[in-house]
Write a sequence for this structure.
């Protein structure tokens, strides 16, 4: 196997690794604010791609992406307000349930969103126009070919991480979210509305997911059921890096994507998705805190 082919596998792995990393960032934001594993995160990615596809037929692509992100953000905020806060927490107080109950509720929300998407868009696979160039007019680097969309995906991943870092460090809302993450009671004593910060965490997770869905749809295409697989990969990356540690999630995303890409050298391509499950099980058995995690998962103060 020559170097060009290996480099081609590397580019493919970095592309999918960037996608997984962005999804893991959404998982970490909600986890840090609530302790909940939000398995509806994959559906936010699906909505971003599907809504962008629908709107791009009638309005310019940048506006379609912005509108898709805004709509998905509203969906994320409403899910937290209606289900997690009013229904989920009400039942939690009545039954004595805990975080696990709310996490299971997000699985139900994921199924609900997926079924609604099936009713709206049907089963057909959809795509979004390439941001620049086409898949055919690919770029060349040392003999390996890749789509210009790879640069958009990787750039979006880095930009999202940097913007989130600045948000949590230098804005009042970000600092309030970090305070709620450290101590919900202490933040309330300081006048911070913890419920508003939790709602903001779901909105941010939805924004990140929708942006990931819009920027990756030209390469991966999208359909109503794509969210479940992406949620599994994103959760694997979040655990692999260490739940709550978003810098580690980005690194873990690229690692997992690269491992998956090169795994087809040894295993049939149909088994590529199994690699993520094997890695998840291995991490949970050997190092539950994650590859870069400590015994206590990091919080937003470590963002």
């Amino acid at each position: 196997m020559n170097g060009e082919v290996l480099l081609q596998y590397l580019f493919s792995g970095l592309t999918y690794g960037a996608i997984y990393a962005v999804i893991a960032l959404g998982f970490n934001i909600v986890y840090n604010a609530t302790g909940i594993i939000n398995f509806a995160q994959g559906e936010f990615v699906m909505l971003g791609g599907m809504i962008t596809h629908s709107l791009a037929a009638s309005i310019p692509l940048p506006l379609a992406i912005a509108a898709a992100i805004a709509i998905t953000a509203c969906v994320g905020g409403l899910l937290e307000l209606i289900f997690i806060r009013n229904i989920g927490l009400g039942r939690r107080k009545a039954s004595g349930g805990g975080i696990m109950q709310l996490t299971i509720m997000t699985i139900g929300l994921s199924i609900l969103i997926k079924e609604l998407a099936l009713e709206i868009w049907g089963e057909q696979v959809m795509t979004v126009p390439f941001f620049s160039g086409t898949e055919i007019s690919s770029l060349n680097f040392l003999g390996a070919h890749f789509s210009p969309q790879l640069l958009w995906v990787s750039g979006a991943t880095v930009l999202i991480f940097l913007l989130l870092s600045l948000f949590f460090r230098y804005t009042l809302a970000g600092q309030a979210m970090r305070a709620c993450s450290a101590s919900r009671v202490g933040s309330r004593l300081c006048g911070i509305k913890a419920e508003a910060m939790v709602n903001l965490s779901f909105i941010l997770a939805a924004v990140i997911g929708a942006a990931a869905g819009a920027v990756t749809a030209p390469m991966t295409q999208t359909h109503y059921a794509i969210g479940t697989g992406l949620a599994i990969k994103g959760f694997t990356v979040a655990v692999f890096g260490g739940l709550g540690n978003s810098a580690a999630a980005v690194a873990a995303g690229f690692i997992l994507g690269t491992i998956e890409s090169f795994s087809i050298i040894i295993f049939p391509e149909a088994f590529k998705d199994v690699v993520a499950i094997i890695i998840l099980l291995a991490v949970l058995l050997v190092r539950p805190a994650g590859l870069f995690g400590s015994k206590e998962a990091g919080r937003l103060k470590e963002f």
Remarks:
- The CA atoms of residues 24 and 234 lie 5 Å apart.
- The longest helix spans residues 61-95.
